[in-house]
Design brief:
395 residues; alpha/beta; Aspartate Aminotransferase, domain 1; Aspartate Aminotransferase, domain 2; 2 domains; three-stranded mixed beta sheet; 15 helices; 15 strands; globular
Length: 395
Amino acid sequence: MFEHDRQRLRAELDSIREQGLWKEERVLQGPQGAMIRVNGKEVLCMCANNYLGLANDQELRTAAKQAIDSHGLGLASVRFICGTQDLHKTLEQRVSTFFGTEDTILYTSCFDANGGLFETLMGEQDAIISDSLNHASIIDGIRLSKAQRLRYQNGDMQELEQHLQATQSCRSRLIATDGVFSMDGFIAKLPQICDLAEKYGAMLMVDDSHATGFFGPTGRGTPEFHKCMHRIDVMTSTFGKALGGASGGFTTGKKEIIDLLRNRSRPYLFSNTVAPAIAGATIACIDKLSKTTALRDKLERNTKFFRHAMAAAGFDIVPGEHPICPIMLGDAKLAVDMARQMLDEGVYVIGFCFPVVPKGKARIRVQISAAHEIPQLETAVAAFAKVGKRLGVLR
């Protein structure tokens, strides 16, 4: 039966290749870190979400092994059927304490957390107002809801207020935004959004996946950065980036929201929870970050150094202070070619193009890590300059 559609799918795949948009997955021969092994050689990794350099941390690995020994590989079912392990309750409590929230619920990913939030919380009588640059998981999660959907241009507070005014007859309104927008490193205007939410009686949801653990004075994320932690009604995030780099996600916030999710959120009710190894490692990670800000402080220094050096070299980078540092190239094929040649120079980066970013906005998204040392960042800048001149990006 598949033969009927084979030629159509092949044509679509050929079109992706011809446009230079093919997503090639490189095979890593070992753990994530500042240096990784690809194609049999060690190269500098400059594109991982491993913000704090903890993806191969010995202390976290030990905690993961201990959790396997004490709690096995998993429950082999969902929590409301087979029960929940004390390890998972401990992790939920640790997350709530870390962020100063009322309660927390675990998911296998932040994608699932977002997928289970909106349809549970909002119905036909309600409206969801979403930032135009929100992550795909927020967009997909909102699509599952029967609520009215509205969108405002990234950071446009005037348009957000217009939507809030236009939906005042709705039972409830929910504003949804990323804390940090992952393709550009833009930081949401949370104080202004909070003001508007309070003015019009709307709830506020923040996905803080690209800030949790390292952004803000003590790593509590974008709300801490903006000094508005207790003004956020519900927050989703991940354990798969700064908090160890494995997988798993969570939703944290008002107790009534979390209780409703436990009873009606489909990804929670119909999926196994995070593996005990991940729970154990993440508990150890949160405990580590609660004691010291040394890693996030080093990450901040590394970020400032790299951003300044790349701008001085002549590259068009998106301004900001986040470890996400997009190098704007425009052309998709150029981005792919540059990434390929950078690998030849011993630096692992990836070209981002449509549909991950808009057409004409292709880029290489560099992500700085606390695992990087300044000499490594200097090596990366020199390699970018060499390849950039070769490809005509720099004169």
